[in-house]
Specification:
Layout lengths: L12 H5 L5 H13 L15 H29 L6 H10 L1 H6 L16 H5 L2 H19 L1
Helix pairs in contact: 2-3, 3-4
Length: about 140
């Protein structure tokens, strides 16, 4: 009796790289975004993205999520609560110097964070707001000429 050779099981790129984030999905999104890019001539360019780019991006995203969640878990232990809420994630990011500089323009949903708004734009009606925007676009076009 001879033993049958073990079947070769397919491994995903995430498993090969030892990641939890989906490398294939990230690669698909990168390719679709690359197709939408235009050159300086206004022509669509060919969207070619290396497979290594997707692995690298998945690695960075996984590292950042791991870092944020580890710090949030520490703050949950300190406050003796049971859940990581958006408010805790927000305060965790604001308390860490490196994460604060990385996420400076990010607003987290349901974290009761107050955004920074231009007071002049808040007092304008919708019609005046769009006229203000159009005048700014016209000025930029005149400067470019």
């Amino acid at each position: 009796m001879t033993e049958a050779a073990p079947k070769h099981q397919n491994k995903t790129r995430s498993e090969k790289a030892g990641l939890l984030f989906p490398v294939g999905r990230i690669h698909r999104v990168l390719k679709s975004r690359a197709l939408k890019c235009k050159t300086s001539d206004g022509k669509l360019r060919v969207g070619r993205v290396s497979g290594n780019a997707a692995i690298y991006l998945a690695t960075v995203m996984e590292y950042l999520c791991n870092e944020v969640l580890d710090l949030a878990a520490e703050s949950v232990k300190k406050t003796r609560t049971k859940r990581i809420t958006p408010q805790i994630i927000n305060t965790t990011i604001k308390n860490d110097d490196l994460l604060r500089s990385l996420f400076k323009d990010v607003s987290i949903a349901n974290s009761s964070e107050v955004g920074v708004y231009n007071e002049k734009l808040l007092t304008l009606s919708a019609k005046d707001y769009f006229q203000h925007i159009r005048s700014g676009v016209k000025e930029q076009k005149q400067i470019a000429k």
